[in-house]
Amino acid sequence: MGVVTDWSKYAPHFTRSEFVCKHTGKCEMQAETMGRLHLQRRIYGRPMDIQRGSGYRDATHPVEVRKAEPGAHARGRAADTPVAGGAARRFLFATALVSAVEAGLLAEEQARAWLPEMLKHGFTGIGVHQKGGGRFIHLDDATRADGLPRPAVWSY
Q: Is the pTM for the entire model greater than 0.85?
């Protein structure tokens, strides 16, 4: 598919200016990645703030230069969006539904309808520790009645 040239496909949810490398002003986001992010946004049903996060990063960006080799951001295949707590749970469930839509298991409309129902069930606490030794993911089904802020997603 190549680099995005027509950003109107992603309006009103995303604009080119959100994904531009803050270091060089270049923007080489891949169309396949943007299509997937746009589907994620439609299923998620809430804004995804890329400006505060990170979109495209040129290989010369200070963050990329510190790496052994440039990562997914430098390839135009990544974006970060700030999300926490219950919104993070919604975001993660929407991510799973993106996979189901792309696999042809659900239509996009079905995925959007399923998300609210999915959020009523399953694990309410998701903790992620994926750096260093002892990597793990914590899952629980505690509720606010247990005295815990739920739903919630956190990192260790």
A: yes
- 21: nearest Cα among 88, 70, 83: 70
Nearest in space to 135 (alpha carbons), one of 155, 150, 152, 151: 155
Contact predicate 4/14, CB 8 Å: no
Residue ranges with strand state E in 63-151: 125-129, 136-140
**What is the Cα 35 distance to its own chain's centre?**
13
CB 81 within 8 A of CB 51: no
| Proportion of the chain in helix, strand, coil states, percent, rounded to 5 | 40, 10, 50
Site of tokens 């899952």: 139
14: left (phi over 0), alpha (psi -120 to 50) or beta: beta
Instruction: Establish how many alpha carbons lie within 13 A of residue 65's alpha carbon, considering only the half-sphere containing its beta carbon.
Output: 4
Contact 79, 37 (CB under 8 A): yes
CA–CA distance, 148 with 60 (Å, rounded to integer): 43
Residues 64-98: pLDDT tens digits?
999 999 899 999 999 999 999 899 999 999 999 99
What tokens were used for 92? 């993660």
